[in-house]
Amino acid sequence: MLGESIGRNSLLLGFFAILSTAIIAGTYLGSQDIIRENIRQAEERALLEIVPKSRHNNSMLEDAHGISDSDMLGLRSEKKYYIARQDGEAVAVIFPATAREGYTGDIDMIIGINVDGTIAGARVLSHRETPGLGDGIDRKKSAWIDGFINKSLLNPTVELWKVKKDKGVFDQFTGATITPRAVTQTVLQTLQYFNQHQHDILKQPITAHTEGQQ
């Protein structure tokens, strides 16, 4: 009797374990589409903060191309850059970049460059900088990063692409110089990368129909 009871309990436990696993797996698989769509929407929102819909009519997420430059863009793995187009003509490119010299580690960014070589905008995607000091690079904390908008390799000249403490033109934060210095250097290097490779970048084929067109 005891053996039969143990056997039945074991079977019941096994059944419930399988049932629980199936429910968890089903929930996980069923949520993957939602998770992917949420990630896609977050990516699109970040891109549109730099190049708004009024400036392009393609899907930047679908006009994406692999890039893995570690020297100038600081990338530690392959990522994607995005081309914004108006009626098929490129108007801006948004690059991924990593400032490796942050005070507490990597600062992951996206940096938009107009086809005329001026900065369209930049956003910090992730960082571990000190709250109240270095986190001013985050657009949610301050508008400091907007100071790069419309800047280029000629405005200011390359030797002035530094924070003011280093005799450049860009502000630093009170008590925090390392973080804005790292970001400023990375934005400059992204401009230089675009300047060197723009011919190959801008000739990339259109990878998706423009929105509203067949």
Strand segment count: 5
Into which percentage range does the β-strand content fall? 15-25%
Low-pLDDT stretches are 209-214
Mean pLDDT score: 86
Structural class: alpha+beta
- If helices are DSSP runs of H or I spanning 4 or more residues, what is the number of helices? 2
What is the helix content?
Answer: 25-40%
Q: Using the CA coordinates, give the radius of gyration.
A: 24 Å
How far is the first residue's CA from the last residue's CA? 73 Å
Oligomer: single chain
What kind of sheet is the major sheet? 5 strands, antiparallel
With strands numbered from the N-terminus, the spatial order across the biggest sheet is 1-2-3-4-5
Question: What's the gist of this structure?
Answer:
This protein is 35% helix and 21% strand. With 214 residues, it is an alpha+beta fold. It is a single-pass membrane protein.
Structure characterization notes:
- The protein folds into 2 domains: 50 residues; 148 residues, no CATH class.
- Helix content is 35%, strand content 21%.
- The protein has 2 helices and 5 strands, in the order αβββββα.
- Strands 1-2-3-4-5 form a 5-stranded antiparallel β-sheet.
- The C terminus is likely disordered.
